[in-house]
Amino acid sequence: MLLTIVLTLDTEKPVEYDRLFRMAMAWSAGDALGEVELVVLSQRDGPQSFDVHVSSCPRNRDGYPVWDLFADVREVWDQIHGDYVTFNHTEYMWGPDRLRRTLMALDQAKPVVALGNLRRTQRVETGYAVRPKDNALSRLLASWLGSNQFDQVTRWWDCFNGYPWLRAQEPGIVPWVEDVFFASRKWLDAIGFFRHGGRLPFQDVYDVMGQAMQLLERHELLPPILRLARDQCELVHLAHPKYWSAYTEATKDWFFSRRSDWAGTTFVREDLWQRLVKDQHPGQVIRDFRRAPGGTVTRWHSEFSGWLQNGGTKALLCRSL
What we know:
The chain has one domain: Spore Coat Polysaccharide Biosynthesis Protein SpsA, Chain A, CATH 3.90.550. It is of the alpha/beta class. Strands 3-2-1-4-10-6-11-9 form an eight-stranded mixed β-sheet, sandwiched between helices. A four-stranded mixed β-sheet has the order 5-12-7-8. The chain has eleven helices and twelve strands. It is 38% helix and 14% strand.
């Protein structure tokens, strides 16, 4: 059994987190590291800290990448060989022995989709709430990982994982909720997850997967979703600064100078951009931006819905996963 971790290197997280992620992954997998394939997508220019696929995304006048994760995944999809695929950021730190146990759990249960347990060191009321950019527990965990004090991490692990990403669920078959997830590659191929939606700048995987689950449930095609136990799969999200660099006047001007290419999308809506660039913590505005008519989530949802209604549902019913 092979698990592919698709890791994104962006321009906002501390570069030191690259090293911490790699160290925590290897430590957590132990002797099962050979069952992990790491595919790294970088949005950065210049020297890289991994063997990576460097995104060909353009940049605005400030040099910030107009990144498109879905386009990047399409480019490397043939290089993804895992039976299961998961999507990580460099601030995700795997817990003691958890990656090895995750591999065992996936191999034994063979779910179509499984949820892990991404945890926080501090309480956050909603996914779009303003999060502290720094946290003493987060700094301590990073320090111990960075100095190979894995025995300390193991001993005090339960001090770092106090809060669920959104809400806690008991292990077993559960409703979909945003969290770190593991999807069968065959299933992702069957639903064409990355084929839909066209160009989707600044769109992460998690919002879109939620839309996929809603539509599949509506068509009675939702696969059982297995929540792994915390002692099987658990990661901690390190605190980091949030700069919202994608939503600036420079990025707005980049899209508006190409207005005809982005006609019908939220990227050329003046009213939404005014809200985005004025708000110092635009998390909720970004959610509205993605879900408004012409938004990235809306366009993906519309295309996937059309596919289901025009042969996709029948194809899924006929296809053995």
